[in-house]
Design goal:
single chain; 256 residues; Rossmann fold; 11 helices; 20% strand; globular
Length: 256
């Protein structure tokens, strides 16, 4: 039976945040990328919820959450996410993030390490070798063609909801961020997951991101693009469960 996904609005730092939840047990938070809402994490959430409590927020300005007067940027998004976790009082919570969400998760882990457990970074951005708008726009267009058509409908609707100005301002903040420096300061174990057809996160950067971490590992997902958690939720769920429960040694056995 597919777990029931519950949804509600909660107020965090004066903003109404839309949160999806499913399952019970040890919590894991799923954090979306740039422009898109937590809706594209529902396939992975449904698998993980068989054994865990899954929390899927829309950051302020994304999806169904309240839009602040100005884009929050990385720091503001990390502050809201940290307050959401602090108020739940569950201690350090594991985070599975995608794309820009990886940058937010790393910033939160650096600022509030007591709130953050092991990190799974799916297609982390930004590759330090490719910071220009033109390169990222071209890579995004190519990657979209490699994703399942079901994801296109979510992407286009969520991009339109966020709006071009807010999307552009947040993208600029992402390009200016330096996750390659931040990841080395993180004490939490980090698993980097990359779809082998990902046009946005290069294999070189994914491997480098894992190697820069104090306790990092890297695993590819065959036939997947940037949103491996959407197109291959069973594979990503097995990787996440192995990482959280048994450590990185068996990850290679489960990646198939």
């Amino acid at each position: 039976m597919r777990p029931v996904v519950r949804s509600s609005f909660v107020e965090v730092l004066g903003l109404r945040i839309y949160v999806r939840e499913a399952g019970a047990g040890e919590p894991v938070l799923l954090l979306h990328g740039l422009g898109v809402s937590g809706r594209y994490f529902v396939p992975l959430a449904s698998v993980l919820a068989a054994r865990r409590q899954v929390i899927v927020p829309d950051l302020p300005g994304w999806g169904r959450s309240e839009r602040p007067s100005r884009p929050l940027g990385l720091g503001g998004a990390a502050d809201v996410l940290g307050e959401l976790l602090r108020r739940r009082g569950r201690g350090a919570v594991s985070i599975v993030a995608n794309s820009f969400g990886c940058q937010v998760a790393l910033m939160l882990a650096q600022r509030r390490p007591e709130l953050v457990g092991p990190l799974t970074l799916v297609g982390p951005t930004v590759d330090p070798r490719y910071r220009s708008w033109s390169v990222h726009a071209a890579r995004l267009a190519l990657d979209t063609l490699r994703e399942p058509p079901a994801l296109w409908r979510i992407l286009f609707a969520d991009y339109a909801r966020m709006g071009s100005r807010r999307l552009a301002a947040t993208a600029q903040a992402a390009l200016e961020d330096r996750p390659e420096d931040r990841v080395a300061s993180i004490r939490q174990p980090i698993l980097v997951v990359r779809g082998e057809r990902d046009a946005i996160c290069t294999s070189q950067w994914a491997a480098e991101c894992a190697s820069r971490a104090q306790r990092g590992s890297f695993r590819p997902v065959a036939k997947a693009a940037h949103a491996a958690h959407f197109s291959h939720p069973l594979v990503v769920a097995r990787l996440v469960e192995s990482f959280l429960e048994e450590g990185p040694d068996r990850l290679g056995e489960l990646n198939g």
